[in-house]
Fold:
Amino acid sequence: MSLPPTSPPPGATAAPARTDWSEQGLGSMVRSGIGLCALGCIVGLFSVGSALAEGRERFGFDAVTLDVPPGIIALGVVGFILLVVAAALPFTWAHITGIGLGAAWAGFWGLALFAGRMSETFAENTTPTIQGGGAVLLIASITCLAGVVVALVGLRTSPRPDPSVFADSAGRTSGKSVTALVLGIGSILWFGAVLGALAVTFATLGWLDIRDSDNRIRGKGLAIAGLVCGIVGFVLWTAGGLALAIFAENGTSS
Structure:
């Protein structure tokens, strides 16, 4: 026989609602974006064994073809597993990690294409043409990038904690906003695809906390600055990386 629910003693206050930081996750759209990144890893696996690029051989005038190395399978499988787990777990930290992993694997597939085209197999000062396997690597990279963008957009609709959890936050500066600014500045200087995506994530979550607290939490300017820096870093490094992977000229020295 089940016991009836008990009410709190007179004068006792109810426990505050748990925050979304570790208990609620970031919503179905963020999970879908991370899942799309996992799909990008599956796409990348189909490149193995196919021709990555074709160009003039290094010490001669004949055309030579470079295949996608089979060792890429292990990293693709690892990426897929990590992203699926990140999307499946109902925790905010897991979804934030998934966004970062999605950006990292987008860079990985693009780097694999770039490294193949810059191989010492090809003559210097030539531009090896992308073949079927290389095109698949490019599609995998773009798919992961699309997943990251979907997840970042989905942050705006993520579940929010009860506003009462911010009742005692007056005057406190949002740690997420500070983190966003640090990551945003770092994204412009180094590896912006990952740091930029994380900067946008923390900036959005920090801004939402400030909004839901009726501005009792400070740091809105930090969140906006982190958001802008994160977007700039993400776009610049992503666009630059894709341009190098597709158009770079082989300049390897002997």
Remarks:
- The longest helix spans residues 220-247.
